[in-house]
Amino acid sequence: MQLSKLIYLPLIFFMAIGAFMAFKYGSQYAQIMIPPAVLMGLTFVLSPQIDWWWYQKHPPQIAPPLRKFVETHSTFFKTLKTESAQQRFRERAVLTKLSLDFKTPTEDDDPVTEDLKMVIATTAATLTFQWEAYLWEKFENVVVFNGAFISPQYPHHQHASELFEPDGVLLFSAPHLMKGFMNPQQYYDVCMHEWARALALSYPHLPWPSDNTQRWLDLERISGFPAPAIAQWINRPNLELLPATIVTFFHFNERFQKQLPDLHAQLTQLFQKG
Fold first, then answer.
1. Residue-range definition of the domain harbouring residue 44
2. pLDDT tens column, 90-103
3. Which of 77, 83, 140, 249 is deepest in the core (most CB within 10 A)?
């Protein structure tokens, strides 16, 4: 339960005592209700900060089936060899999930399911795992569709993912999202692609690799995904090279190091230092 809601319980109790005494012994006892009423108002206003402070001190645990799902399919989690690193990753994923606002396109749709939320949060936490500032202040909104979708930005393309910077929102097709997470060797990871875009936009001062169209061929040799196939999978114009580079770096790390050792060293330093 959220800490702010727990705080309400004793305050409601004292409010009830004040109301009872005012009713039974006279209106002068109504003043007993003033301090808890003021504190309830403050708690309501400050509840996001109160709850976030509590969550940072005591991160919620991932439900066992969901934890097993994440640990089984997360390529990055499998590279973590110590329990402390694995626990840090779990906590970062949970806190990232709590910091994001998940929505569906219309109010008639079912809410975003917990497994989809964890896939999205886990992917985001992968990119910022080594960083002290691991939350996404500029991109806290996520919309999940039941399938490929059109949008005002791309009204003529049924696409699988999108980032709209002015609103700080990432948009995903749930089936594409899940396939890329569960089997990134076979399906291109659209979730990591958009989070990588968000990362570069959030930290433009970092020394990101410059675009070089020749690299598309290198990425194909590493991952087996030709650029046209990725473009067809996402299905929107102007496919971005830097996010594709980052996706390949994380999911095909050993091959990436052999094929592009200098670029591998550059990205390794970026993701270790932030």
1. 3-57
2. 988 988 998 899 99
3. 249
Q: Note whether 126 and 249 are same-domain residues.
A: yes
136's tokens: 């996404």
Report CA torsion sign: 264, 242, 272, 221: negative
Give the integer Cα–Cα distance in Å for 75 and 89.
Answer: 12
End-to-end CA distance of the chain: 33
Q: Tokens at residue 23, please?
A: 């009713």
Asked if 259 contacts 219 with a C-beta cutoff of 8 angstroms, the reply is no
Q: List, for residues 122-161, the tens digit of each pLDDT value.
A: 999 999 998 887 788 899 999 999 999 999 999 999 999 9
Domain count, the chain: 2
As to burial, measured by CB atoms within 10 angstroms (0-12 exposed, 13-18 middle, 19+ buried), residue 156 is exposed
Identify whether the C-beta of residue 189 lies closer than 8 Å to the C-beta of residue 180.
yes
- The pTM (predicted TM-score) of the whole model is 0.81
